[in-house]
Amino acid sequence: MKKMHILGLVLIAGAIAALLTLMDDISTYDSVESAKKKQGKFVHLIARLDTTKPVVYDPIKDPNYLSFTAVDSLGVSTLVVYKNAKPTDFEKSQRVVMKGSMEGETFQCKEIILKCPSKYIDNKAPQPGKTVSLKEIQSAKKLV
Fold this sequence. Notes:
By secondary structure, the protein is α+β, with helices and mostly antiparallel strands. The chain contains 3 helices and 7 strands, in the order H-E-H-E-E-E-E-E-E-H.
């Protein structure tokens, strides 16, 4: 074989090895039940904070420990442990995307992404119960 063929095969093998390594980080969004079936595997969960259960965070005692209960869209809940500082406006978030793995009945979270729909509300839309002028209606029609 020519040296170029050997070099090409080595490069292709290296590319395949790199892709297989990156495949470990790729995952889909799971429910709590499916995450429990994938014990120890890296998953993404979308849930909301269960406000009826306590959020444990004491920055004086341990600033890198946060635990709370999350409920997925199917209504199944799980205890979440996040070993990092509590994200800003955590309690105000509508949904939470968590990356981590299940260990027993507890989700060991590595990263939290907060979803807040208030950032996406159209501030120019009239609020319920507010009197709107004809000029405001006409300018809203121009936006559409």
